[in-house]
Amino acid sequence: MKGFIVDSGYRILHGKAYITLFGRSEQGEPFLTLSSYQPYFFILKKDLKKAQSLEDFSFEETSLKDFKDQALVKITVDIPSDVAHLRKGFEGEGIQTYEADIQFARRFLIDTKIQACVDIEGDYSYQNEVKVYKDPELRPLALFSPPLKLLAIDIETDSRAKEIYCISLVCGEVKKVLIVSDKKLKQAESFALEKDMLERFFQLVRELDPDLILGWNLINFDLKVIRKRCQKLEVPFVLGRLDTVTKLVLKEGFFERSKVIADGRQIIDLLMWVRDTVKLDDYKLETVAYHYLQEGKNITFFSKGEEIEELFRKDPQKLVYYNLKDSELVLRILEKSTLLSLYMKRSSLTGLMLDDVKGSIASLDALYLKKLRDRGYVAPSTGHSAKEESITGGYVMDSVPGLYENIVVFDFKSLYPSLMRTFNIDPLSFGKKGIKAPNGASFSKEKGIMPEILEELFEVREEYRKNKDEVGRYAIKILMNSFFGVMASPLCRYYSLELANGITSFAQFFIKKTAELIREEGYEVIYSDTDSVFVIAGKKDPEKLGKELEQRINSILKDYIRSQYYVDSYLQLEFEKVYTQFIMPKLRGVDKGAKKRYAGLVHGKLEVVGMEAVRGDWTPLAKKFQEELLMRVFTKQKVDVFISQFVKDLKKGKYDALLVYKKSLRKPLKDYTKIEPSHVKAARQIKGFKGTVIRYVYTTEGVEALELKKGEYNYEHYVQKQIKPIADSVLMFLGLEFEKLLSGQRTLFN
Prior knowledge:
This protein is an alpha+beta fold. β29 and β30 (about 700-705) form a beta hairpin.
């Protein structure tokens, strides 16, 4: 039977550990496999006697070695918690452990080389319509598209989230709302008590038997509230396929992620998936729905909590429709965004469960440890050491500011992965003689594991390209680009700042080398940035020059790498595009070129990088003004009349809707003690402010939260802080001055 693994874990049955794999078969049946497996880890053979003096345990000698070629012994235990117990005792006595930190279910999947899909063969029985296999034969399979069952849920509560009014569920043809009401409502089941409603909710989850439960801000709000009400009303909080209570692990930091452990199912906060893959102004359900579906919710609230309470009391049918729409939007966004396909492909590449594939360290582990064992080596346990220094960044050349025509842009395709393949940059080959990086790090010439992994991923990506599978290509790109950052993290078992800096030092060297080679060909380089080079085409046809230089520089680099390092080059410089018109601004207040800030026309379309029009901390007014100004400059139109008229229209109130600043709070309001930035001042004006994003404006009263605006707009603030800096950055290249244009305009006003 072919199956897609939805969730993995383990259970202890009669004192023995069993790996549990839950999933959905190709035919649409839910299944569970139980595989007996023994937890284990390693220590150095030379530490065995000392370890035996501390604890009793079973062990076996192996031919496996650590990265320093020292012999290891394998220690086996009965249950996973024994690994943690022994590791703590051994490391407390100075005995190093190896691979003692790997989650037990993940250990099994790594050892069996199963990644997302599995072929199951063996005897089975049925338990509540779930096909259960005990100790079947399991074989890895290529990814297929299983008919996964999806359930979207959403709750509505009182303004303090102390009471749940209703819960919507959408799963296939089932679209209903459970609501506390004494009325008979369409598309709803009514309950006299909140407790009855919650019990029915969990009953429906069991009956529908979804593989994935999804929602918007699902874990940190909906499930957090549901669990709290379950505790209060004594309702079992069980979302999984087993009877065990569902675990909720809540995290508040931006870089930490809350998680739900519900045996046999994945609990997915779609907000997080969207936030990780697309850049939007904000991540409210309404905003994301408009982005993907060109439609929003069916009610817009000003004060949501109070208005929901009023609907609950006076118009529960309207509340039912509103609640149901939220769940419907979640499933439609999931389908339109192709995010499920992306995460399934990432799962099939790494072997991680759907909601774990975002973990770059776990992804590398899942791929690396398989190949490491095949070579007869074992990895160290994670040390969680502190990061002493920062990683060396990519090289960014000081730009040559100005207005230009025909700028040819080149960039290295997958620069860091290509460097790792070319120079055999790998934890296992690190520190051995062979290839020396510019920072002094050395790597052996015997092909490492990381280059082997990357080579296979490049081949898969090429297959995806041939099949025009953009989702697959993107999944590979994310995975490959994560490897460099992982090895620069102290949380990674392969962490080495010297190794990671070996990659960036090669990157800096070759981007500088490329610019040097282009200059030797007789062309001026005005800017380079990590993996890109910007070249003035001059009188030469830019498209023709791009193709010629791409071929020429790649040939020179290939010969150079072969002669200097005696290896084949995987570096590939690509002619990316031509900016027919281009601006590289100066840094404000100094006569020096900006970095990572420029704009230009590509096939008549404006592209802006790093400038105010694409920065979230500037107003929509700044975006509109900069884009229109740049288009006029690039199309050789006069700008003085445009600027004067724009400021005049601003002061007449034409652009009032564009004057809103939006900024995120990086910490709770109470923690801003030393200084009070404008957005913090605005947030403090709102009684009981709980959000993370504040919208505010400048008025004659000063900074005001948008919702509480009383004063008239302070147009002079917007002229000086939003219009003038943008105008100045362009006008300096045209021999014009903003103040002089404005003084002329004031004469007109008078």
